Amino acid sequence: MVKLVLLRHGQSAANASNTYTGWNDVPLTAAGKEQAQRAGNLVKQIPDFLPTHIHTSVLSRAIITANIVADVCNFLYLPLTKTWRLNERNYGKLRGLNKDLSRKIYGADQVLEWRRGFYAIPPKPDKPLTNRRYRRCDPRFVPQAESLYQTQQRVLPYYHAHVTTHLLRGEDQLIVAHGSSLRALIKKLEEINDQDIIKLEVPNAEPIVYTMDSQLRIVDKQILK
Fold this sequence. Notes:
Elements: E1 2-8, H1 13-17, H2 30-44, E2 51-56, H3 60-73, E3 80-82, H4 99-106, H5 108-116, H6 148-167, E4 172-177, H7 179-189, E5 208-212, E6 218-223
Parallel strand pairs: 1-4, 2-3, 2-4
Antiparallel strand pairs: 1-5, 5-6
Helix pairs in contact: 2-3, 4-5, 6-7
């Protein structure tokens, strides 16, 4: 058996202000850092969990959470890979907008479809995203706005190339990422249909522990709180 642990970052400043974050780089709040500390203590208590690698996004809220958890668990010696493919979903023109205000502007039904639907794409921003952390990425693959489906399409190549290869060797893995990128991955792992994925929530800083067999079939799932 092998374990895969998924963890959403602690509360960010945008979570606290109820705004869309996406690829905006926002810090953890003080409460978010405390959540990450508690999450680290929960991960530390997982029986026989000995990861060989930590995977995270290139956004600070996930990186800092990963570092706090690694510190608590004495995992700081492990290799840590940062990739844009694990970034939060890009919410396009919604980035930085208060979620309640977005419902007034676009309508509650449309916002629900953008937020929870699998294929719905929010409007693109007036100006394309530019950031030095993506300067080496092929601009054709850097989204300006994306659906959860498109998020899944960028997450899965990384997962298959850099996570499953370790899992198949019997090496536990830890992924610290974001609500939507983890929803996209969980949809695939648990074979959740396009309708039921609307109901799935990934809370901040609650480790999700999958135990898998040698064929990477899930034999147990636990959410630690």
